[in-house]
Design goal:
The chain has 371 residues and is of the alpha+beta class. It has two domains: 199 residues, Ribosomal Protein S5, domain 2, CATH 3.30.230.10; 135 residues, Alpha-Beta Plaits (2-Layer Sandwich), CATH 3.30.70.890. 42% of the residues lie in helices and 18% in strands. The protein is built from twelve helices and ten strands. Strands 1, 2, 3, 4, 5 and 6 form a six-stranded mixed β-sheet that branches. A four-stranded antiparallel β-sheet has the order 8-9-7-10. The radius of gyration is 21 Å and the shape is globular. Bound molecules: adenosine-5'-diphosphate (ADP), ligand LRWZ45AK and magnesium ion. The site of adenosine-5'-diphosphate (ADP) has 22 residues, from α2 and α3. Magnesium ion binds next to α3.
Length: 371
């Protein structure tokens, strides 16, 4: 991670006051997300429409410990496996899910939280005695933002534990802090996941370059989730590490590759037109935009990066006339049947026949409306 030389942040005052109130366990639940339109242009000053996916979530718990115990992280039995029955078992696990689980996200969240407070001269109470643990129902590395759900939930716990009120981190700025956690780990990531995981519900996002440069964040417009048609989530058990999928395109974009620049703008336009289609309830137009979004991604990334199984998922949905695109970087797709229930029946049949999981998408309410 390149770092810019800047003036050292003010050191935390040596004597930190004890936590004013009795420290109690804190749990934060953050939902997965579906990029409905415009992704991955969010990483390229584009536009997206994203929804908070109530079907899956990550949950982080901060459990205070007696003073002097310090900070520890509880590995997840499944996602942070350190026990294998054989070399073959280890090989299979690493091949499918990579070397890393979520503990590194918890650690990076702590580091970035501390840096954020230091940079703002925000003194934290002396409360550095806790265990951070997590669980997640989000299919692993399925392009449903499992990574940032864990990071976002960890930051929520830390803010609550140390008494950093929500208004101390302006809402539009909070996604940047979540994103910095994954950037800390070199994980390819754009802002859309974090914005929707902070706002919840359904949000139209404009990452216009001048706005981003001026304000450090984009323009985020919550939309009523009731605008959404019935949508389907289809996924396979094939983790795809986001880092692999984005690497080539980001470099080509940064080098000004005219084809990538033009296509990424066309992807962003899918979100802009999609917002009008949602508001007018034009599902045929919405379906066309979803298909166009995926086709543009495929032209930019190429089939090898997208992966045979992901391409087969999209082709299976389209075989019955449904619109289909990636929810994120690969591993799960979102489908829309503009012709209604009969088409949905056909979609379910072909997905089951191919061994894919399919379920109706439930959009979680805006965070402001959640208890
Ligand atoms: N289900 C999970 N459990 C533990 N760690 C996860 C999980 N999903 C993602 N991660 C962590 O986030 C990193 C990036 O995952 P990524 O491919 O971005 O997942 P996603 O597409 O769900 O965001 C992984 O290398 C891993 O460290
Ligand atoms: O490629 C995409 O659509 C998204 O990929 C990443 O999200 P992921 O959860 O890993 O699928 C990235 O973080 C997003 O910004 C992209 O839009
Ligand atoms: Mg990710």
């Amino acid at each position: 991670m390149g770092t810019r030389q800047t003036a050292p942040p003010p050191a935390m005052p040596a004597e930190r006051p004890p936590l004013a109130r009795k420290a109690v366990p804190v749990t934060s639940r953050v939902h997965a997300r579906v990029g409905l339109l415009g992704n991955p242009s969010d990483g390229f000053f584009g536009k997206t429409i994203s929804l908070s996916l109530e079907n899956f979530y990550a949950e982080v718990t901060l459990t205070p410990q007696p003073r002097g115990r310090g900070i520890s992280f509880k590995p997840h039995a499944v996602h942070d496996r350190c026990q294998f029955s054989s070399l073959e078992d280890l090989f299979d696990r690493v091949e499918s899910a990579g070397y890393y689980g979520g503990v590194r996200l918890l650690m990076a969240a702590c580091k970035r939280f501390y840096q954020h407070c230091q940079k703002r001269g925000r003194t934290l109470p002396a409360a550095d005695d806790f265990v951070l643990s997590y669980d997640t129902t989000i299919p692993r590395q399925a392009g449903l933002s499992g990574s940032s759900a864990i990071a976002c939930a960890a930051l929520n716990c830390l803010c609550s534990h140390y008494g950093v009120a929500a208004e101390e981190i302006a809402l539009p700025e909070r996604p940047n802090l979540v994103l910095s956690v994954e950037q800390e780990l070199g994980i390819t990531a754009g802002l859309q996941d974090r914005v929707i995981q902070v706002y919840g519900g359904l949000v139209y996002m404009d990452f216009d370059r001048s706005t981003m440069k001026r304000d450090g964040h984009g323009l985020y417009t919550p939309l009523p989730p009731a605008l959404l048609p019935r949508l389907w989530l289809i996924y396979a058990d094939n983790p795809s590490d986001s880092g692999r999928v984005h690497s080539d395109v980001k470099r080509r974009w940064a080098e000004g590759d005219p084809e990538v620049r033009e296509k990424m703008e066309l992807v962003a336009a899918c979100a802009e037109e999609g917002k009008e289609a949602l508001i007018s309830g034009d599902w045929v137009r919405l379906a066309q935009l979803m298909d166009r979004n995926f086709d543009l991604r495929r032209e930019m990334f190429g089939d090898a990066a997208l992966g045979e199984l992901n391409l087969r998922m999209v082709a299976t949905a389209r075989s019955v006339g449904a619109a289909a695109k990636f929810t994120g970087s690969g591993g799960a797709i979102v489908a829309l049947c503009p012709l209604g229930e009969q088409q949905e029946e056909l979609l379910r049949d072909v997905c089951v026949a191919e061994g894919f999981s399919i379920e109706e998408i439930k959009c979680a309410p805006p965070t402001s409306e959640q208890g």
